[in-house]
Amino acid sequence: MCSSDLNLLIVSAFVPLAASAVQIDGPSRGGAKLEMVKVALVSYEAVGASWMLNDVVKRATGRPRPYVVACAGEADPTSCIAHVDDSIALGDGWLDADAHQSFYSGHTATVAAAWFSAATFFAEDGPNDVVLRYALPYGAAAAATITTGVLRVEAGRHYPTDVLVGGLLGASIGVLVPELHLRTPVSLALAQTDAGAALALQGRW
């Protein structure tokens, strides 16, 4: 796992937890704790769905990354792309599977799914003020998504269309998954099994 993937994992894990802490009012006891876990788990569900869809599309399309196209005709392609990522310029790394998984940007999609799911939960029970309840959380989600997309393009890892599609799909999943759960009953249950304790999240649409 490269450092950018690790950073993405940390960010996508932190945002749902922060959203669950803000979204739940009152003392963190009993039902409030359980509700907090629900919010975090549904947000993780959105991030996971985004990740899985992205993996399927990447493998199906096989679009080469910009640095592959730019350096494919060079006598020494690994040196040509060394400025993009030091790990790519090792051996034949520029020809590995990841080098042909440009479409669409998983980083942008994951950040969008995490931030927009957090915004959706916050907007559900946020302040009465329209700016604080909707404009601020969704604006922050859009800013985080756009920033990630711009950085991925600037790094030479994606085309603008990759991050545009990633942002739109990630944001859509980030809003849709929480909305489905918010509009339908969701149950969270703890159970003891032969293998140990189990946690189950169940919803019906």
Could you characterize the architecture of this molecule?
The chain has 205 residues and is mainly alpha-helical. It is 63% helix and 8% strand. It has seven helices and two strands, in the order H-H-H-H-H-H-H-E-E. A two-stranded antiparallel sheet has the order 1-2. Helix 1 runs antiparallel to helix 2, helix 1 packs parallel to helix 5 and helix 5 packs antiparallel against helix 6.
Distance between the termini: 36 Å
Coarse shape: globular
Supply Rg.
20 Å
| Spatial strand arrangement across the major sheet | 1-2
Uncertain segments of ≥5 residues (pLDDT<50)?
Answer: 24-30
Indicate the structural class. mainly alpha
Give the biggest sheet: 2 strands, antiparallel
What is the topological layout?
Elements: H1 3-23, H2 31-61, H3 66-71, H4 77-80, H5 106-124, H6 130-154, H7 160-183, E1 186-193, E2 196-203
Antiparallel strand pairs: 1-2
Helix pairs in contact: 1-2, 1-5, 2-5, 2-7, 5-6, 5-7, 6-7
Descriptors:
globular, mainly alpha, two-stranded antiparallel sheet, 205 residues
Can you give me a brief rundown of this structure?
This protein is mainly α. The chain is built from 7 helices and 2 strands; from the N terminus they run αααααααββ. Helix content is 63%, strand content 8%.
